[in-house]
Specification:
The structure is a homotetramer.
Chain A lengths: L9 H21 L6 H8 L3 H7 L3 H24 L5 H18 L1 H10 L6 H24 L8 H22 L4 H14 L5
Helix pairs in contact in A: 1-2, 1-6, 4-5, 4-6, 4-7, 5-7, 5-8, 5-9, 7-8, 8-9
Chain A binds a DNA duplex through α1 and α3.
DNA sequence: GATGAATGAGTCTTCATTCAT
DNA sequence: CATGAATGAAGACTCATTCAT
């Protein structure tokens, strides 16, 4: 799958996941660079070589984290939307699913944000983001075609949605500890009707 | 003040600014950690000692960049709003000023985003952000009191505004190269009236 | 004897030999140090434990390679010379046998050459070389006693013979792919009569 | 020149040379791989970073050693031959110059020999060797054309000369400590007239 | 006999920082 | 003020070797 091509025993898979999880925590809290491989293996309580048994490099591990997170969020949104046909409702459900997912993966946000700041990680990040963008754009186009929302460049609107969703997750859910469902309400209301309401 | 306490000749100030500017570029493009002090002084064409003549450390330089940027953005917004009394108009003008400022300082966004991902820089970042938040909250409270916008937690609304503004600046103005004024229009419309418009 | 003291089943002997052969190839092509134990077992398609079942260490394996090669070359020369009494002819036949042997074991040359460059392997190398030297010296002494060749330190002459033989094997037979018999002719002619001939 | 492109002060040049010399000693005695960068800088009594101030890597330093040695030997031979026109005499003088040069640089031989055993260093080695070969070939061709030596492939003869010269330098001069001039006599006599003499 | 996993000392290399000149 | 040189701690990574299963 996303491994370095080794066939792993169940015990091996567990170890690998332990390392992945621990690395995520550390990266999120302290930062990618300030977290050394020694920190990661130390936290799991294994020798240094173990890290390189499961991963090619610190960088590859990070890249894998990135890809997996983006994949997982999207899968979650997909599943949530699956049974809905109305484009505006799909959009809303997708947004709510995103808030829920972010609430369950607070550390990931830091990793994504960091990835955007370094040349070497931007391409990997961009890829996943353009997928998310594409999903939103699809719904927006339909909604515009149906006259349900005011005309506008769907890509721009999609960026607006993603920006709002991400920032509120970070600031209100993660930082302030607000209930993600409530914040999702706020986001949806604001996005659909604006500050002045209807 | 913003220096490490040395009195600088005009030439010295220039040197210092050169280093500051070059560091900003590099940090923004490559990342803070991947940019070495050697890179910075090399780009300016001076010896390594010069760097430590003007700055205490790489970290202190970064911190200064952060503080100065936040201060400058706020000053810009303040000046723009100064002659306006209507709270909703102040909000709008502030937003437009922000887009304009960001358009002129595309690199800064990366630095701020990075600062949020490392323990050691978060406090410095938070400080400036809470000021920006406070400004927006003030206007929002007034507007709510006047019944101009629907009731809601002004702090939450402020976060929404900042999130939207930042993300659109990054994605549309910086990345896509859109005209900041136009994107500001979009942001204001969206924030005030929502996707469904009035 | 030449093993690490284990009694091996036929299958075991084969495995052992596979490892020995593969290691020889890799050492010769890439070098001793750049070739890891993982490379060796990987090439044979077995687990790492197997290596340490048959050999005490990477170093011991290399030492064994060295000893075995020198032993085998000498055996070959001995057999070739066996039925000849004339010292000059014995010398010539020995030289030709050497060219033939080297032609069949091109990789060994690299190993011997490498062994000479590291403190830890020099003693093992020297041992075999002094044997080869002794053999040649014996014939040369006889030939000198019989007045068949000009007087001179037989040891020096032996070194000259070995140096020439080795270098021509390497450069002409191995590198250029020349026929070893023809190169042996050249070597013998040159050694016996010199560049100016008779 | 052969540096990593830094402009060095006199003191810098000296440091660099110290490192070069010390590395040569260690490489020759212990081997390239068993000699760590820490060993090299430790022997000179400087910090580890100094090494990387003057060289890009351990490998690059080795490569430079190789190139410089080959260049220097050739220069020496060139100078020795300069005033001589007779091809056979040029050959002889070149051989004698080689013995003298090797006598003064006993460590180099090990480095060259080692370089031949590792894939990554072979190209660099080959380059210099083909130059040496070409020089000898030139003289041999002339000598053959003049009928001074028996006909034969000059390249093969050149290899024979180089092989003999190198081996005798190593075994008799370096190892046994013989006088290089005397060994050169031996080599020249042997090469020109063979074991059986004239 | 064999394997995959683990160990940890050791390697090369980088880099913020200092300092003599 | 400025420079080139030096420092040395710290980092990523490798690899011979061991061992539980």
């Amino acid at each position: 799958m996303t491994t370095n091509g080794r066939k792993l025993t169940p015990r091996g898979k567990e170890r690998r996941q332990q390392l992945l999880d621990h690395a995520t925590q550390r990266f999120a809290e302290t930062g990618y660079h300030p977290t050394s491989v020694a920190d990661i293996v130390g936290g799991v309580g294994v020798g240094k070589g173990v890290f390189y048994w499961y991963f090619d490099s610190k960088e590859q591990l990070f890249l894998e984290l990135l890809a997996e997170a983006q994949r997982d969020l999207r899968r979650t949104q997909r599943d949530a939307i699956a049974s809905e046909d109305d484009p505006l409702r799909r959009l809303e459900i997708g947004i709510r699913a995103a808030f829920r997912w972010w609430a369950g993966h607070p550390e990931i946000m830091n990793l994504l944000q960091f990835a955007a700041t370094e040349k070497q990680f931007r391409p990997a990040l961009r890829q996943g983001q353009s997928v998310a963008l594409g999903d939103a754009v699809t719904h927006l186009k339909e909604a515009i075609a149906e006259g349900r929302i005011t005309d506008g460049d769907p890509e721009e609107l999609a960026h607006a949605i993603i920006g709002l969703t991400g920032h509120l997750s970070r600031e209100l859910v993660h930082r302030r500890g607000d209930d993600p469902e409530r914040v999702a309400d706020l986001a949806v209301t604001l996005l659909f009707d604006g500050l002045r309401g209807r």
